Amino acid sequence: MDGHGVDPAEAWPLVAAEQNNWQLTDLAVDGTGFLQLGNDDNTFQAQVDEAQTLSPSVVIISASSNDLGQDDSALAAATLSTMQSLRAALPQAQIIALSAFWGDTTAPPQLDSVDSALVIAANATGATYVDIGQPLAGRPDLMQSDDVHPTADGLRMLGEAISSDLALEAPVAQNPGG
Q: Which residue in 16, 39, 63, 107 has a CA-CA distance of 20 to 30 Å to 135?
């Protein structure tokens, strides 16, 4: 969610915020997941802790391909724990949980487990789960040379697709994960 490999202003959350005139604080840290430590040596839980200090009205959190390779049961437990913490910290906030996106190739089977863990956690915490699909599927032209991260054009496409899927009327005030 932080625009790995491109100008941070091209990250999809900023694209979606600009399209919808939302106020946005993007707390994403490259490489982070519910279990996977990001570049700051923290998981999404640290972003949840930071989001709490901002008192947002809307929080967007996303399942992450960064958690691929993790044990499914440990991932489910960490996802639920993080979502419970988010709900407890921000009981009045609208929490929107997005499915993980993949690049231009066929998504690995474990991505379904990553998404399922978030579906269960969202249902348990009163969050809204949104399946954004795979907007980049079959579009190698929208992927960076690492074939993992979207280009600026790919991020723009993601931002537009996610914005359309969300169809929010309230401004997005926070984005703690991705």
A: 39
For residue 62, give the nearest of 17, 99, 87, 106 by alpha carbon: 99
Superfamily of domain 27-154: SGNH hydrolase (3.40.50.1110)
Q: State pTM to two decimals.
A: 0.85
Distance CA 110, CA 94 (A): 28
Three-state SS string over the chain comes to: CCCCCCCHHHCHHHHHHHHHCCCCCECCCCCCCCCCCCCCCCCHHHHHHHHHHHCCCEEEEECCHHHCCCCHHHHHHHHHHHHHHHHHHCCCCEEEEECCCCCCCCCCCHHHHHHHHHHHHHHHHCCEEECCCCCCCCCHHHECCCCCCECHHHHHHHHHHHHHHHCCCCCCCEECCC
pLDDT for the residue numbered 119: 97
Query: 22: phi > 0 → left, psi -120 to 50 → alpha, else beta; which?
Result: beta
d(CA 47, CA 170): 22
Q: What is the pLDDT of residues 38-48, one digit of tens each?
A: 999 999 999 99
